[in-house]
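ZP: hey, is the magnesium ion complex queued? I don't see it on the tracker
AM: it wasn't, my bad. submitting now with these inputs:
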Amino acid sequence: MTTKQAPNTLQKMGLDSPMALALHLPSRYEDETELCTIEEGVIQGRFQSVQTQGVVIRNQVLFRPRRQMLVTIEDDTATLQLRFLNFYPSQQKQMAVGTHIRVRGEIREGFQGSEMVHPTVRAVTPDAPLPTSLTPVYPASAGVSQAAIRKAVTQALRDPSLQDSLSEFLPQKLMTELLPSHDWPNLQSAITYLHQPPADADTQALLERTHRAWRRVQFEELLAQQISLKRAHAIRRERQAPRFKQQAESKSLEAGLLKALPFQLTTAQARVWDEIGNDLSQSFPMNRLLQGDVGSGKTVVAALAAARVMDHGYQAAVMAPTEILAEQHYLKMKEWFEPLGVQVAWLSGSLKAKEKRLAQEMIEGGGAQLIIGTHALIQENVSFAKLGLAVIDEQHRFGVRQRLEIQQRVGSELFYCHQLMMSATPIPRTLAMTYYADLDVSAIDELPPGRKPIATKVIKASRRDEVIGGLQSWLSKGLQAYWVCPLIEESEALQLQTAVESFEQLTQALPEFKVGLVHGRLKSEEKAAVMAAFKANQIQLLVATTVIEVGVDVPNAALMVIEHAERFGYAQIHQLRGRVGRGSADSVCILMYAEPLSLAAKERLQTLRETSDGFVIAERDLSLRGPGELLGAKQSGDAMLRFVDLQRDAWLIELAQQAAERLLANHPDIVERHLARWLGSRAEFLKA
Ligand code: ADP
Ligand code: MG
């Protein structure tokens, strides 16, 4: 009956073809190539799994203290008890008295002598040969036995069609030129080896996936990725987008905005604006990431891009991941653009139905030139009259699908808008070379003048009273401060409760100051009112949940206390901390933590205290969380690289990149076959 179920469940796991099975590689191995006597096993089995065999001399089912089956086997040297806490009638039969079985597991000292708990059992003849290769253990989902997968894989490896799908594509010459010293097997041998490594294989290298058989597979996978990224790049260049060259006349919005700004662009801002401006004047869509640490001044660059587009009679849209951030952009853009006569529209999910309809009409009719909003821009039923530019702030907070989505809002399949993404989280080099290879990157690597470094302190929560004392003298100097309450993932209600408690405590402790509270449950007008009061210094201390994470800009607030800092991730604290250090006062960030502290949290806090370099922090973050989460790719549910680990295998990326270039230039036929083999339907995501 299990054999009938197996094909179904295997198919559910995506193992529906010989190729899929061949690429379902083991996560580890068991060594069943050796056999010891029961006597030897009792000694060795304390430390590791052992394999032994014998005849069943007793099989009994007990009901006390709980239902279990005890089986005793015997060979010439000793006896051994096997204990099963869960068992099926079929297993009772399999281990009937008189049968000869081979068992594998660790041995421990039980109540009644040496025993194996839940060993792997196989009925065999006493002289049944031992396997000559290690036994693979596969990733499996519930209801699929290892035996079923092994059988299916073994069959698949013998399937004649595999000869073709695993055949060697890569020209030998290319490989020896790129990697003269390589000793990699061809793909088919590598795959076979990984499924059935010989008894003397280097199991350490297999487990760590650094074995040359693994290298071969990883290289192929990266190669497919590099090829498709280069392809996507070429495809983008063939697409049509409106060209926005700089308008000569001094009445242009672009010139007007530059003139009206109360500051000069920094050199870095001027440089990236140049790069972006150049992209906008091309006939194919821009796909650029503007990277710059918190506070580096990305917004004004986005505004200049919007101005250029509007100068040509097109619309520009700015989308941000949270209502607060979107609103900050909205207020800023209104401040900059309304005096220049631009119609700025606002669209968020929290608008009343009537307001929403009005905004949508303005967007569709073209009355709105600049549109700022949240996900609502792609979720609601919006179509743009003439969208020329989409700016996506904090782009990694959006999924790949959502980034594709805004492209599709332009109205025509053949016509694309320019896209500018912005992020304060720098992309580590390995990611830039893989997932983001079709993205041009501009970096603002300089902060506006006059910024002060932020001193970060790490303090135990038990010193809370001291912290509040310090807060008091801080506020007495006429400065303002933030008090950030922790994220509680399990419960929004609990998160709110702690925020309210801290708010009440601080209100009581600091009676001479006005304390405000802002959190995600407030209506947007309420939130805006609190933020406005804080900006106007009518509120001196702002207690907040992580809703203030991005975009808030109050230069007089130069102190931030973060409660339960150990519960935050790297990027979050870095973002939060970026709220201070914007004025002329020395800035301080206090990370309060509660004990006990995990090793990871300890390291995190230490790193955050020692550096405010966004790149260092992003690298640490990457090694901790993996690229999927950092990119927002996790939301797409597709793990693009199955066998490659960007940290461990970084050196392979460059190699794959070179190989991809050569193949694209000289072997278009190989390129096609290679892509079909590796990517299939997943290629779509590379275009985002
Ligand atoms: P971020 O890159 O984090 O989005 P913002 O665009 O919000 O940063 O800019 C942070 C602050 O710096 C804003 O108050 C902005 O007006 C100001 N700013 C931006 N560019 C300059 C500049 N060149 N000189 C002085 N202040 C600037
Ligand atoms: Mg910003």
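AM: back. The first helix runs from residue 2 to 12.
ZP: great, adding it to the tracker
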